[in-house]
């Protein structure tokens, strides 16, 4: 099993920056890709924000391209999401995700990001 713990969320003004972290533990050798998802209030579906593969290939949602950067520090078993030029529409609960080699997925508990206008 893999456990994921996010940190770094908070309240920031529009135009500001935050960095989210996700510490992985457990069977980390089973992890292939990792990613960040977010779920806005009012019943919106959880959406992919950014993803990074074991080979460090990345992809981003169109809405965050050029503003967010995903990275991973394999030595620290930690995933990051640097978020710059934040907008009110980025307000959501952000979840760390790990795709495991045997097809399962692991999720963190989520961290709230609130961007005020």
Brief characterization of the structure:
The chain contains no helices and eleven strands.
Task: Describe the fold and architecture.
With 117 residues, the chain is mainly beta. The protein contains no helices and eleven strands. It has strands spanning 2-7, 10-13, 18-26, 31-39, 47-52, 58-60, 68-73, 78-83, 92-100, 105-107, 111-116. Strands 2, 4, 5, 6, 9, 10 and 11 form a seven-stranded mixed sheet that branches. Strand 7 (68-73) and strand 8 (78-83) form a beta hairpin. It is globular and about 40 Å long. The relative contact order is 0.32.
Instruction: Label the overall shape.
Output: globular
Compute the number of helices.
0
How big is the Rg? 14 Å
- Percent of residues in beta strands: over 45%
Largest sheet: 7 strands, mixed
Order of helices and strands: EEEEEEEEEEE
Q: How widely separated are the two ends? A: 40 Å
Name the structural class: mainly beta
């Amino acid at each position: 099993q893999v456990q994921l713990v996010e940190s770094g969320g908070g309240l920031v003004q529009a135009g500001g920056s935050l960095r989210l972290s996700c510490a992985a533990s457990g069977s980390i050798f089973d992890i292939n890709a990792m990613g960040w998802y977010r779920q806005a209030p009012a019943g919106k579906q959880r959406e992919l924000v950014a993803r990074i593969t074991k080979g460090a290939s990345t992809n981003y949602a169109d809405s965050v391209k050029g503003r967010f950067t995903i990275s991973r520090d394999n030595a620290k078993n930690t995933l990051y999401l640097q978020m710059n030029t934040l907008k009110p529409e980025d307000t959501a609960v952000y979840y760390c995700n790990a795709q495991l080699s045997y097809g399962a997925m692991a999720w963190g508990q989520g961290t709230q990001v609130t961007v005020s206008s």
